[in-house]
């Protein structure tokens, strides 16, 4: 896994004033963790957007804050719902030797290789992410599971079918291993279900900013131009 790095500078503009930062091509952020108070930070829009896309909420990011190095994961990402542009990031510092809990994507592999697909059936993913525990160095970018063995609508993929990498375990030891990751459907059944539901449901991707920062400041920074 390639190291993901980002240089952050401390910032003094808070609340509604972060609009000035965004106009200047900067993204306001905050760094939490340890016994220290949250650190208000900022970084260039282009570089920060690349880091967010590469790291998501599961890959450690090597931060340099005013010359000091810290390891962190992204805890929350705020996206402008109209412009679809990054407008705020919250980081949480971690240690290399401590076990952390985070979500990672589940990726289905073996598309087109299953008997089910050759028979004209449709395989749909039901679970997109799984919560795992691992040390930062052991965190996988994703959990892969093959769908090649699926043959009929009676078949499915569950969490129990996922082989976890060494040093990685599911966050909840009692987590239901029968939780379905992917199902097999008849195309006609999917069409009927979609028609009954009146079409595809609209997905919401906006994520609120979380953390220990004062709520009034935090809320203002997550709004474009400081307005609701």
Per CATH, the architecture of the largest domain is Beta Barrel
What's the total count of β strands? 13
Bin the strand percentage: 35-45%
Largest sheet: 6 strands, mixed, barrel
Query: What is the radius of gyration?
Result: 21 Å
- Tell me the CATH superfamily of the largest domain: Ribosomal Protein L25, Chain P
Report, as a whole number of angstroms, the end-to-end distance: 40 Å
Helix content: 10-25%
Shape, per Cα inertia axes: globular
Order of helices and strands: EHEEHEEEEHEEEEEEHH
Number of domains: 2
Point out poorly predicted stretches: 201-212
Describe this structure in words.
The protein is α+β, with helices and mostly antiparallel strands. The protein folds into two domains: 5-95 and 209-226, Beta Barrel (Ribosomal Protein L25, Chain P), CATH 2.40.240; 100-194, Beta Complex (RNA Polymerase Alpha Subunit, Chain A, domain 2), CATH 2.170.120. 17% of the residues lie in helices and 35% in strands. The protein has five helices and 13 strands. The protein has helices at 18-23, 45-55, 115-118, 187-196, 215-221; strands at 5-10, 26-32, 39-44, 61-65, 68-79, 86-94, 100-109, 122-125, 129-134, 143-146, 156-158, 169-170, 180-185. It has a six-stranded mixed barrel. The radius of gyration is 21 Å and the shape is globular. The chain starts with a strand and ends in a 7-residue tail after the last helix. The model is unreliable at 201-212 (pLDDT under 50).
Which descriptors apply to this entry?
35% strand; 228 residues; 5 helices; Ribosomal Protein L25, Chain P; 4-stranded mixed beta sheet; 13 strands; RNA Polymerase Alpha Subunit, Chain A, domain 2; alpha+beta
